Amino acid sequence: MASESDVPATWGAQLTSAERILALAGLSAPREEAAELLSHLLSVPVSELLAWPSSPMPQSDAWTYSSWVARRAAGEALARITGHLEFMGLDIAIGQSTPLAPPGAPWLVEAALHWARRRAPGELLAAEVGTGCGAIALALAALEPRFTRIYAVDSSPLALEAARANGARYLLNLVISWLEGEGLDIVPEPVDLIVCAQPGWAGLEQAPVKLRPRGALVCAVDAAQRPRGDELLVRSFSMARVWVEAQTGGPAIVIAQLWRDHGE
User: Cα separation of 14 and 9, whole Å?
Assistant: First the structure.
């Protein structure tokens, strides 16, 4: 059997070899991931890679590609290898120490956008707890212009530095304030929407106090944490309408909307 070094240094041959390795590693979409890795390495669109399989590539790129494929086959996240996270149409730069968006993050954004677009016209304020790489805050700012201020909170200065750099690339720091802290205490004003993608967030009880009347919490809850999460929601959001959007293969998205001012 030929070794990987014997694979011809053409786009098509390299993709075929990478697909085989990733399939043997048990990845669910080996062809797509092999193409995405090579596209990032060569800065060539996937459609062009597939259209010109005989195109040659330098041996140095072939060696780098082989190492990338091996890292992916070993379970390393694709975004860690390429340094880029494709999220809701945004290209977010990712460092080796940058927290990645959790698996349910796109669903969380969709739920938050759906809630916001059903609101009466007017400007909206939002806060995200545990923003990490900033993907959720960036997507909300990019996809819904009614969010005129988003407070993105995280306890890691390094994570916030990376998130702020991504915000600068998209000119979204005009809307997003990146705040270092553990929870909602650092958010300077009540908001219309609180988002948290971290299942088991300890600050759930704080949320109603930081929400404007008819504001909402959108959060992710793993199945194992549902009983405890439901208990906190009932206690903390006693004056709220609560519903759950179940997701296949991911956490449930819980939305709790105050129907009158907290404490009335």
Answer: 6
Average pLDDT along the chain: 86
pTM over cut 0.85: no
Tokens 């739920």 found at:
111
pLDDT digits (tens, 9 = 90+) for 209-255: 888 888 888 887 766 655 565 666 665 565 555 555 555 455 556 66
Q: Which helix (H) or strand (E) holds 227?
A: helix 226-236
Side chain identity at residue 84, one-letter code: H
Residue 264 has pLDDT above 50, yes or no: no
In percent, how much of the chain has pLDDT > 70?
80
CA distance 37 to 68: 7
Tell me the two tokens of residue 163: 């998130």
Residue 55 φ/ψ, nearest 5 degrees: -60, 135
Q: Which letter does DSSP use for residue 146 in this model?
A: T
Task: Yes or no: say if 115 and 144 are a contact pair by the CB < 8 Å rule.
Answer: no
Please give the Cα distance from 64 to 60 (Å, whole number): 6
Domains and CATH numbers, the chain: 4-82 (1.10.8.10), 105-258 (3.40.50.150)
Distance CA 141, CA 242 (A): 25
Over residues 201-207, mean pLDDT: 71
